[in-house]
């Protein structure tokens, strides 16, 4: 007897919007779970851009990558990296084709919204010691109070020596917190808008309460903190002036939901893409047709400024270093290599959140959790202003790559037209004339201390990135 068809045949004319968990092959589930586990472990360790950078460089070295300065000549199969200031790094695997035919590139950012310390952060008020802070990136300030926070410091002393420290990530270490008003006394605060209820100057971190015994010091609690910092790290107060000290939500990322289908953790924008991109490159065991490159960059959350942001010349300088080692020293070689490259600007997107349906783009134009990674043709705000829109030709290519490699994907639109907008590194890369499109999974609670992702969407992003790096055009 013939088996009855389980389901009615779907129309091939309509977009397939079925939930990814019903579309993914069950045989893939073990590798999806393995991927999620590895990603959660990365997210738990790489809490700052420096830690993400160092994690990647260390892993890459294990895979045979060396600093470009160690190579005089480059040939197919060679693996090198170029790093800047320990915060931005470009990994490249030389392919078989001449590099001036273009590269297949992925670019994500490893900086995340957080709370930085001011240059003179340490003060005492009412016999309590505090750190005064200046937040980094687009945080919603009310979300960062009354939470356990960890501190990660990179302190450069006058003699150039560096002290790196971290307090609050391990369970036996203390944490820190920004206090909030008790509801009993918050009547006036409650009348304010969310933007005004907790201000930037309210974000003061409580770090100690015990005074020194000496009777001479005026600020005895502050003095005590300085004593501790001096004992542990050899620091004096002026050393804060030449330091990067960041406060991030303390603790590890973890699985979320009774069905364990999601991941809750700090910094998923954009370490979810950075990890997927980096791992996709590290997984390449054969020499690819086209040179494959992965860019993990800094300062995206503040507009890509500075020497380690993508508005700098870091990327083209890095490519020039590579070309120089292939005896391609003309500007034309550099221009051709860049303009013929193709890139997925690997960044996260929003998702339809039924708690806030009023901001969702209607008519199947809002990404949904578990429908796979998101291809976003354009970003920008109010009339696509500031957008780097991908050509339909390139969108078609990416569609084909994903569809022929079993990558579940959907299109993206940040939300309702005219409500807001955003940008990524895409438009800085598009200046070279290369094809660029934004691609990555969606998140709930983006830029919040703990962001939510779907394991399936994270896995499909990695799968899509692998297929893209191996794309033969
Ligand atoms: Mn981002
Ligand atoms: Mn962001």
Q: Would you write up a description of this structure?
A:
- It is a single chain.
- The mean pLDDT is 96.
- The chain is built from twelve helices and 21 strands.
- The strands form four sheets. It has a nine-stranded mixed beta sheet with strand order 1-2-3-14-4-15-20-16-18, sandwiched between helices. It has a seven-stranded antiparallel beta sheet with strand order 8-7-11-5-6-10-9, covered by helices on one side.
- It has helices at 20-23, 29-45, 49-62, 187-191, 194-197, 220-233, 268-282, 314-324, 331-339, 392-404, 426-430, 455-469, and strands at 66-67, 79-84, 88-93, 103-109, 114-125, 128-136, 149-156, 162-167, 177-178, 204-208, 243-249, 254-256, 262-265, 291-297, 342-346, 373-376, 380-381, 409-411, 421-422, 435-440, 451-454.
- The site of one manganese (II) ion (MN) has 6 residues, from helix 7.
- Residues 109, 269-270, 300, 347-348 line the site of one manganese (II) ion.
């Amino acid at each position: 007897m013939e088996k009855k068809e389980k389901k009615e045949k779907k129309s091939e004319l309509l977009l397939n919007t079925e939930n990814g968990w019903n579309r993914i092959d069950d045989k893939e589930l073990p590798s999806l779970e393995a991927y999620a586990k590895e990603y959660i472990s990365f997210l738990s360790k790489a809490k700052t851009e420096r830690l993400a950078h160092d994690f990647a460089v260390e892993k890459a070295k294990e895979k045979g990558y060396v600093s470009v300065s160690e190579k005089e000549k480059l040939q197919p199969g060679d693996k090198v990296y170029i790093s800047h200031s320990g915060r931005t790094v470009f990994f490249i695997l030389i392919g078989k084709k001449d590099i001036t035919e273009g590269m297949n590139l992925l670019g994500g950012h490893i900086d995340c919204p957080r709370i930085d310390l001011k240059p003179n952060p340490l003060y005492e008020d009412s016999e309590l010691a505090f750190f005064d802070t200046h937040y980094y990136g687009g945080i919603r300030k009310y979300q960062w109070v009354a939470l356990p926070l960890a501190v990660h410091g990179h302190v450069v002393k006058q003699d150039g020596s560096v002290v790196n420290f971290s307090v609050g990530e391990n369970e036996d270490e203390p944490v820190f917190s920004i206090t909030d008003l008790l509801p009993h006394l918050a009547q006036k605060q409650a009348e304010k808008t969310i933007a005004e209820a907790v201000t930037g100057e309210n974000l003061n971190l409580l770090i100690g309460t015990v005074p020194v015994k000496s009777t001479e010091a005026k600020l005895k609690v502050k003095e005590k903190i300085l004593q501790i910092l001096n004992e542990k790290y050899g620091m004096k107060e002026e050393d804060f002036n030449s330091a990067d000290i960041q406060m991030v939500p303390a603790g590890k990322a973890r699985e979320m939901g009774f069905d364990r289908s999601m991941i809750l953790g700090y910094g998923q924008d954009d370490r979810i893409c950075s990890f997927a991109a980096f791992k996709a490159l590290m997984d390449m065991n054969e020499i690819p047709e086209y040179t494959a490159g992965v860019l993990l960059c800094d300062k995206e959350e503040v507009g890509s400024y500075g020497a380690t942001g993508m508005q700098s010349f870091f990327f083209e300088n890095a490519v020039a270093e590579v070309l120089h080692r292939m005896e391609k020293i003309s500007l034309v070689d550099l221009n051709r290599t860049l303009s013929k490259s193709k890139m997925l600007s690997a960044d996260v997107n929003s998702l339809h959140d039924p708690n806030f349906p009023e901001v969702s783009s209607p008519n199947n134009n809002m990404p949904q959790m578990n429908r796979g990674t998101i291809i976003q043709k354009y970003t920008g705000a109010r009339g696509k202003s500031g957008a780097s829109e991908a050509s339909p030709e390139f969108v078609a290519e990416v569609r084909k790559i994903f569809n022929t490699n079993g990558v579940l994907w959907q299109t993206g639109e940040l939300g309702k037209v005219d409500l807001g907008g955003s940008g990524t590194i895409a438009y800085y890369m598009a200046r070279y004339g290369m094809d660029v499109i934004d691609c990555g999974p969606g998140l709930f609670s983006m830029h919040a201390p703990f962001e939510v992702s779907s394991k399936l969407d994270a896995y499909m992003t990695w799968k899509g990135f692998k297929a893209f790096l191996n794309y033969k055009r």
